[in-house]
Structure formats: C-alpha cells, structure tokens
Amino acid sequence: MTPNRVWEANDPAGVEEVLRAWFEHPEREVDRVEPIETTSVEDTMRVGWRVYGRGPDGPFVYEQQAYVREDHGQVVWLRVMCSGPRPAESISLT
Question: What value does the CA radius of gyration of the chain take, rounded to a whole number of Å?
C-alpha cells in the first residue's frame, strides 16, 4: 500500500513486477537508507527503513514498514506500507 495505490501480487514474478514499478523513480536520487528497529508479533516480523534522498523539488524522506511471514526460509506473506515522500528541508543529507 502506497499513498496513491494498493499493489497486489500472488507469485514471485508478480512481486518483482510490483517492486520494480514501485521503486522506479529516475527523477529521485536516494542518498541513504536507515533501518528501523525490527520486532515481531508472534509469527509476523516487522521490519522498517527510512529513505533520504533528493528529487526535483529538493530533499525528501519517506518511511516504509513491512510485515513478513515466512515458511522454511521463503516469504509466504508480505504487507508493505509507505508514508510517501515528504519534504525534508531541515534534514542534512550529506
């Protein structure tokens, strides 16, 4: 789920297609990605990261959280939520 769209896929090829479309932003440059503390809710792991970068409108930051379930080392269930890019004028990206 992103700010403007809900994405769905049912197999690895579909997931790859969704992620390629989701992350494809040639006008944005990512400077760094910072992990957010990982935790779990019973059989579901929560992972997160904060992305800092630059785009046509200046510096931005966004955060993503993912909830993951696995079986024998394979992801069998995944939900990802994104805050969407937010202006980051007060954040140093260097």
Answer: 15
